[in-house]
Amino acid sequence: MATLEIRDLHVTVEADNATKEILKGVDLTVKQGETHAIMGPNGSGKSTLAYSLAGHPKYTITGGTVLLDGEDVLEMSVDERARAGLFLAMQYPVEVPGVSVSNFLRTSATAIRGEAPKLRTWVKEVKEAMQRLNMDPSFAERNVNEGFSGGEKKRHEILQLELLKPKVAILDETDSGLDVDALRIVSEGVNRVRESGEVGTLLITHYTRILRYIKPDHVHVFSGGRIVESGGAELADKLEDEGYEAYTTKGGASA
Ligand SMILES: Nc1ncnc2c1ncn2[C@@H]1O[C@H](COP(=O)(O)OP(=O)(O)OP(=O)(O)O)[C@@H](O)[C@H]1O
Description:
The protein is α/β, with parallel strands linked by helices. The chain is about 35% helix and about 30% strand. β4 (about 60-70) and β5 form a beta hairpin. α5 runs parallel beside α6 (about 180-195).
């Protein structure tokens, strides 16, 4: 069973000619089939965790380990991480002018599966996945994220998730900017992948509303660059009622 193990992860970033430590010892284990929600105040380092796991060059790992199925993720290049089974749905997906969605998806699937998917079954696979996500077929011919609305960008991230079938999916605020219908459709996509039992999900979110659709097995409070409390789904309700004040004043001030 695939497991992502993060141990005592420390990460710095260079900003304004200074080195700033953002992650200050993150410990987390995500097993295949499990869904973990990470919630926490703005600026506490949640996206930094997501980017560091994906291998963004802006973030320097200064300590700790990250293992996927016992393999050292931190030694891998970004594309090796993706091929090993890590997937990041970004908070702000980037535009890729000149590259169509269909080309992008097929190239990604070829790289990850190790061989080009058979054209006829692939076209059907993409068409059905797009239908489930309520995406117009014309999207396949548009350039990646170019002129996409916020909601369309998020659906496109989930389309990739469904087609690429990673071992561990990190979803960074996939719910932000979605209207109620889109939130339901996107959540259904995540649940389909989840129900396969083959994917571990790390869901970074500010809102408990997405957790009504995607029931987490574990909820973690992130503050000051580390996880300061973990619990079950009930912890999300407590956070909704009480906010993060208790965590930001208890020596867990935001990064
Ligand atoms: N590339 C960067 N350059 C400079 N500072 C950065 C960079 N990335 C993160 N930071 C800083 O690190 C801190 C944590 O940011 P991060 O985006 O990880 O927080 P977050 O918990 O995801 O916040 P939010 O909930 O607002 O999305 C912030 O103070 C941010 O300004």
